[in-house]
Amino acid sequence: MSVKAAIVHDERILLMSYDDHSGFHYNLPGGKAVAGEPLRDAVSRKVEEETGLRVRASRLLFVVEYVPEQYNSEFGNVHKTQHNFLAELLDGNTTLRASDPPDPVQRGFEWVPLKELPDKYLLPRVNQQILTALAADPADRDVLVDRW
Fold first, then answer.
1. Coil, helix or strand for 84?
2. CA 4, CA 128: separation in Å to the nearest integer?
3. Which of 2, 50, 63, 104 is the most buried (most CB within 10 A)?
4. Residue 10 domain boundaries
5. Taking the model in full, what pTM does it have?
6. Is 100:93 a contact under the CB 8 Å cutoff?
7. pLDDT digits (tens, 9 = 90+) for 35-82
8. What is the CATH number of the domain that holds 137?
């Protein structure tokens, strides 16, 4: 189970860039929760580890589910869920720093204008879900995205 953070500041969203077996792509900051760790705590921990930013997870935007059998194991053989939260900066600091030790497949991070988000290659492919979740009332939609 993993957690991700949609951190929006000045109409920009923070994206991490990666280059791995799936090629060059972006994702929201975050990672695996550890056993016994509440999801919101995992968001804060992973964002600080990866970026140096201090955040608080506010609301669940959506959950992405990956079922290997439905995608010919394109992204591995493990059933996965990714919980995506809106996260708020705690101190206004937007200065980013790389993780220590560095992630060997991470290439960097950037504040991307929200209007440019549809043009970025995200894995999972949730560009529109992010924009919809940021704009919508959570009660108006199903928060489970059942495709990777």
1. strand
2. 16
3. 50
4. 2-145
5. 0.87
6. no
7. 999 999 999 999 999 999 999 999 899 998 877 677 676 666 776 889
8. 3.90.79.10
